[in-house]
Write a structure and sequence with these properties.
CATH topology: Purple Acid Phosphatase, chain A, domain 2
Number of helices: 7
Number of strands: 10
CATH superfamily: Metallo-dependent phosphatases
Distance between the termini: 45 Å
Number of domains: 1
Strand content: 15-25%
Order of helices and strands: EHEHEHHEEHEEEEEHH
């Protein structure tokens, strides 16, 4: 029996999208869920999304939105303060202490997961970035991690860019992006996530798969909720939800 691990990322306060993805995950016999950050911000339900992730996810790593919104050194602009007020100090304290990287063995591959980059929450890597920059994602991380392993990864999964993809690189290395649950920017305005299927904790080669899923959700509910709470940059957010295109 193969283990199934769901990987979600970049929910961005979009509760209807998260609920639809979790419903889809539940019907697929998934054994655990890992969240790669950016649970908060942009959308109207940062607090609710964070609470659901705390309950449903076995591992959560920090995204750049968790970092700059919870960091006391970040200037409290009206934009930042809106989300801080939504979350409250207890939840801000929780996200401050989140690790930035996690990893595990599965079917003979060491898999490392993070939000954007193992060395920085803000260094963005795309499918079309120079090969050298993509290969650097496999390095031992400099950011705080749940791992004790100091080996380079065989497989990397990350979020941040809101565009899912899969690449096979030199020496058998595999690179994938999980896309975005709540704010897809790949021209497909549906929630995106990934399931890894294999033998968890096994260091010997074994059967393995990566499956990409797109899930329809109630986008009009997300838009209506955003209008009710008058989120910052409301017009841009609504256009992104409608079109699946980055607007700001």
């Amino acid at each position: 029996m193969l283990d199934k691990i769901a990987i979600i990322s970049d929910i961005h306060g979009n509760l209807p999208a998260l609920e639809a993805v979790l419903k889809d995950i539940d019907r697929r016999g998934v054994s655990q869920i890992i969240c790669l950050g950016d649970m908060i911000g942009k959308g109207p339900h940062s607090k609710e999304v964070l609470e659901v992730c705390q309950i449903r996810c076995q591992r959560i790593v920090k995204g750049n939105w968790e970092d700059f919104i919870s960091d006391p050194k970040t200037e409290a602009t009206p934009f930042i303060q809106f989300y801080r007020n939504q979350l409250g100090e207890e939840r801000l304290a929780y996200i401050r202490q989140l690790p930035s990287v996690t990893g595990f063995w599965m079917s003979g591959k060491y898999i490392r997961l993070f939000h954007a980059n193992p060395h920085s929450l803000y260094d963005r890597v795309y499918a079309t970035s120079p090969l050298e920059k993509r290969l650097a994602l496999f390095e031992v991380p400099k950011l705080p991690s749940t791992e004790s392993s100091s080996k380079a990864a065989d497989m990397i999964g990350y979020g941040d860019i809101h565009e899912g993809y899969l690449q096979h690189l030199e020496q058998g290395r595999v690179l994938f992006n999980v896309g975005s649950v709540g704010n897809s920017c790949d021209s497909i305005p549906m929630a995106a996530y990934v399931i890894l299927e294999g033998h968890l904790h096994r260091r010997e080669e074994a059967d393995f798969s990566i499956q990409f899923y797109r899930v329809k959700y109630d986008r009009m509910k997300s838009i209506s909720d955003a209008m009710k709470v008058e989120i910052p940059d409301q017009e841009a957010y609504i256009n992104e939800i409608k079109t699946g295109l980055y607007c700001r």
